[in-house]
TrEMBL record, chains A, B:
Protein name: Methylmalonyl-CoA epimerase
Keyword Isomerase tagged: yes
Domain VOC: 4-135
EC number: 5.1.99.1
Pfam families tied to this protein: Glyoxalase_4
Gene3D superfamilies: 2,3-Dihydroxybiphenyl 1,2-Dioxygenase, domain 1
Gene behind this protein: mce
Enzyme class, first EC level, given as a word: isomerase
Native source organism of the sequence: Phenylobacterium montanum
PROSITE patterns: VOC (PS51819)
Amino acid sequence: MIGKLNHVGVATPSIEESVKLYRDMLGATSIGEKFSMPEQGVWVCFVNLPNAQIELIEPYGEASPIHGFLAKNPKGGQHHVCFEVPDIYAARDEMRAKGATVLGTGEPRMGAHGVPVIFVHPKDMGGVLVELMAEPKAAH
Amino acid sequence: MIGKLNHVGVATPSIEESVKLYRDMLGATSIGEKFSMPEQGVWVCFVNLPNAQIELIEPYGEASPIHGFLAKNPKGGQHHVCFEVPDIYAARDEMRAKGATVLGTGEPRMGAHGVPVIFVHPKDMGGVLVELMAEPKAAH
């Protein structure tokens, strides 16, 4: 089912500081603009590598779902891993049929790449919060 | 400096259980054999995706460096992210010159891909344990 590893989600208290880190310390040369996803409660910024991305996420608003993660990890850290799947609805149904817990209502919602995504609970994924996303039409 | 995202390191109390998860739950179709790296204190198993890998790591021996991580995260979880660099010695020197802490002696040592690697302390990397590895000669 899973295809490419699309991105690693990295939570940060400050996207600006993280951008300095990836740009100036690690020498990444392609970093997008920061943008907000109010419905998801996050600011997002992509660090583009030749084969995948780092998705920097910073809390947006008081109800952001990543406040808890940053309370436990004040400097930030690895938050989720995202894999591409050919059919997000089939993936959702398959995860459920195999006993995994799909977060929220289970209805895929629009992710930062403009394609629908779901999240699977880390308790069923070896402690890893797994995002599944429909394969984007444009190559990244 | 950094090139491809080579792999995400995922610590697990049981590679066998994690292989079931990636194979049977997530449908990964290319998973290598488990092998030991006694000097690094880990068992390793690669889940091969079209563009990158998940590196499953399980403690090997009582002195394994990942016992502490698993004590905090008994189900396992994301342990490190590995980026490829063209020259591991230049990367080591550049990290140090920019004030980052390279773990251990700082001398690159052989990693699971048969090329030298270093690790950079998460306190300097936004809470992410970063592995840098020399670009492997064979495509993965």
